[in-house]
């Protein structure tokens, strides 16, 4: 998949539908991606979620129309998806720094132009990875459902809760497993645990996740957790997937936290994603 073209196609779809009531599922379907993968890729490649991009572009366009036209505030509010003048005024003021009425009177407003995603080739930074074939495995994990847009902040808290609970912390928690929902939602199941062979039976609060045989791209992350993991995810989408000979398989991905001090600048962890040769 050409990730850059795909995200630009999604931006084109959003731009054509700024005044329509479109959902994350609508946008991801327009580029033949699951909502989960689209949300993740868009956020990593642009630095904002699809919802944030839509909100800012709509408010930017609304501001431009208020300044140059004679339309009423309520008409502009309804056009860009706000049910009441109050909700529109609140969002407009937060984005522009002035109210709609002030904007109509000539106060300066903000403008956010349409995004275009491009890949810039940079030197001096090496991504260390390997391709491995794994047999089918079962993972034993304690899981919770997260939203892609807020998961970066919520998952580290989930890890803290895991180790604070004696019932869970007795099970080796060295794997972070992202089981991606194959639906129109940005929700996904994230689990903490280990290989099923490490523990006898299925303890209370845990479940098995079966992963079929795949080829895996395994990326080495060096630095404190979770920052090193989050930085590597960004590099995978921005630097590796656009030029790699491998295609991401939209199934389960794994974060492997190796022994050591997770706060150390030399700490080593891994991101493992299933792939197929293009």
Task: Provide a descriptive summary of the structure in words.
The protein is 39% helix and 23% strand. By secondary structure, the protein is of the alpha+beta class. It has 2 domains: 102 residues, Homeodomain-like (Arc Repressor Mutant, subunit A, Orthogonal Bundle); 149 residues, Multidrug-efflux Transporter 1 Regulator Bmrr, Chain A (Alpha-Beta Barrel). Strands 1, 2, 3, 4, 5, 6, 7, 8 and 9 form a 9-stranded antiparallel β-sheet that branches. A hairpin with a 6-residue loop joins strand 3 and strand 4. The protein is elongated.
In terms of topology, how is this protein built?
Layout: H1 3-16, H2 24-30, H3 35-46, H4 50-68, H5 73-79, H6 85-96, H7 100-104, E1 129-134, E2 137-147, H8 151-164, H9 166-169, E3 175-180, E4 187-195, E5 207-211, E6 214-222, H10 227-240, E7 246-248, E8 252-257, E9 268-277
Antiparallel strand pairs: 1-6, 2-4, 2-5, 3-4, 3-8, 6-9, 7-9, 8-9
Helix pairs in contact: 2-3, 4-6
Content-based structural category: alpha+beta
Please name the CATH topology of the largest domain.
Answer: Multidrug-efflux Transporter 1 Regulator Bmrr, Chain A
Mean pLDDT: 90
The run of helices and strands is HHHHHHHEEHHEEEEHEEE
Low-confidence stretches at least 5 residues in length (pLDDT < 50)?
Answer: none
Assign a percent range to the helix content: 25-40%
CATH superfamily placement of the largest domain: Regulatory factor, effector binding domain
Shape: elongated
> How far do the termini sit from each other?
9 Å
Task: Tally the structural domains.
Answer: 2
Largest sheet: 9 strands, antiparallel
Quick one: CATH class of the largest domain?
Alpha Beta
Strand content: 15-25%
Corresponding CATH architecture of the largest domain: Alpha-Beta Barrel
Counted by DSSP, the helix tally is: 10
Radius of gyration (CA) equals: 22 Å
Per DSSP E runs of 2 or more residues, the count of β-strands stands at 9
């Amino acid at each position: 998949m050409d990730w850059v073209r795909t995200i630009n196609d999604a931006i084109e779809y959003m731009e054509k539908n700024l005044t329509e009531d479109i959902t994350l599922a609508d946008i991801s379907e327009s580029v033949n991606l699951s909502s989960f993968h689209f949300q993740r890729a868009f956020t990593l490649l642009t630095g904002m979620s699809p919802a944030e991009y839509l909100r800012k572009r709509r408010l930017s366009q609304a501001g431009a129309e208020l300044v140059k036209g004679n339309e009423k505030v309520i008409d502009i509010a309804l056009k860009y998806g706000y049910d009441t003048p109050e909700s529109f005024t609140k969002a407009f003021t937060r984005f522009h720094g002035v109210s709609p009425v002030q904007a109509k009177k000539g106060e300066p407003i903000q403008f956010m132009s349409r995004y275009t995603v491009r890949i810039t080739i940079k030197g001096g930074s090496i991504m260390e990875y390997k391709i491995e074939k794994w047999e089918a495995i079962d993972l034993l994990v304690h899981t919770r459902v997260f939203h892609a847009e807020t998961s970066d902040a919520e998952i580290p808290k989930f890890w803290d809760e895991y180790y604070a609970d004696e019932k869970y912390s007795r099970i080796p928690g060295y794997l972070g497993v992202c089981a991606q929902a194959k639906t129109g939602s940005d929700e996904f199941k994230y689990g903490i645990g280990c290989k099923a062979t490490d523990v006898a039976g299925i303890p209370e609060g845990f479940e098995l996740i079966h992963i079929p045989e795949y080829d895996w791209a395994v990326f080495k992350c060096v630095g404190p957790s979770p920052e090193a993991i989050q930085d590597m995810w960004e590099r995978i989408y921005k630097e590796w997937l656009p030029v790699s000979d491998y295609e991401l398989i939209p199934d389960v991905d794994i974060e492997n936290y190796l022994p050591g001090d997770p706060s150390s600048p030399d700490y080593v962890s891994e991101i493992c994603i299933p792939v197929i040769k293009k």
